[in-house]
């Protein structure tokens, strides 16, 4: 069923989809947020790797980015059509128009935004990111931000996660979800 044929579901029943550039902490914060909310957690990249039986880097190397994106769209559809959960999306997942439409109908999207210099420091720790391989991380992230920020700006919520620990990011997201009516207000 095409994403535009889906009936939107009430905001309190929607999956919470974390979006943003690689290195902003979607996976770590997502796990903690899911525990806090008592919801299952899914990492889009882990799910893609499981479906393909190979790593994201291997998918890029063997089949290219376009095939990776096609697989990512299939996995995101499965995750978003399933029961409510917290999902850490891949940095490019929201670029797919069908995935974006599905997110609009089935998820509350939270753009985890952080200062690019901080993100560049984080992503340098691992050499597993195909879009950064052989490139200056800050320059590459700047180019990705230029292309992706206008799309991320369509998220339901924007939370700055630049400074502080993951626990602070979880708290900031919890406050944003409460303000958006996704969660009941805490005492």
UniProtKB/TrEMBL annotation:
Name this protein carries in UniProt: Shikimate kinase
Listed EC numbers: 2.7.1.71
GO cellular component: cytosol
Protein family according to the UniProt entry: Belongs to the shikimate kinase family.
GO molecular function: ATP binding; magnesium ion binding; shikimate kinase activity
Subcellular location: Cytoplasm
Cofactor notes: Binds 1 Mg(2+) ion per subunit.
Keywords recorded for this protein, A-Z: Amino-acid biosynthesis, Aromatic amino acid biosynthesis, ATP-binding, Cytoplasm, Kinase, Magnesium, Metal-binding, Nucleotide-binding, Transferase
Record-listed ATP binding positions: 23-28, 129
Oligomer and partners: Monomer.
Alphabetized CDD domains for the sequence: SK (cd00464)
Source organism phylogeny: Bacteria, Pseudomonadati, Pseudomonadota, Alphaproteobacteria, Caulobacterales
Main function: Catalyzes the specific phosphorylation of the 3-hydroxyl group of shikimic acid using ATP as a cosubstrate.
Binding-site residues for substrate, renumbered to this chain: 45, 69, 91, 148
Catalysed reactions, as listed in the record: shikimate + ATP = 3-phosphoshikimate + ADP + H(+)
NCBIfam families, A to Z: PRK13946.1
């Amino acid at each position: 069923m095409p994403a535009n044929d889906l009936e939107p579901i009430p905001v309190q029943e929607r999956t919470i989809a974390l979006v943003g550039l690689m290195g902003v902490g979607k996976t770590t914060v997502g796990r903690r947020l899911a525990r806090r909310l008592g919801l299952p957690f899914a990492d889009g990249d882990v799910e893609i790797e499981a479906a393909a039986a190979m790593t994201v880097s291997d998918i890029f190397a063997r089949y290219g980015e376009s095939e990776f994106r096609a697989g990512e769209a299939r996995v995101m559809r499965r995750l978003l059509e399933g029961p409510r959960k917290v999902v850490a999306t891949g940095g490019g997942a929201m670029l797919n128009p069908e995935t974006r439409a599905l997110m609009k109908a089935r998820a509350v999207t939270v753009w985890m935004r952080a200062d690019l210099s901080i993100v560049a420091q984080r992503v340098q720790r691992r050499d597993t990111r195909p879009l950064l391989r052989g490139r200056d991380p800050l320059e590459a992230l700047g180019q990705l931000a230029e292309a992706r920020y206008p799309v991320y700006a369509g998220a339901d919520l924007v939370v700055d996660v630049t400074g502080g620990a993951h626990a602070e990011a979880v708290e900031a997201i919890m406050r944003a979800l409460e303000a958006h009516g996704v969660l009941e207000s805490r005492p």
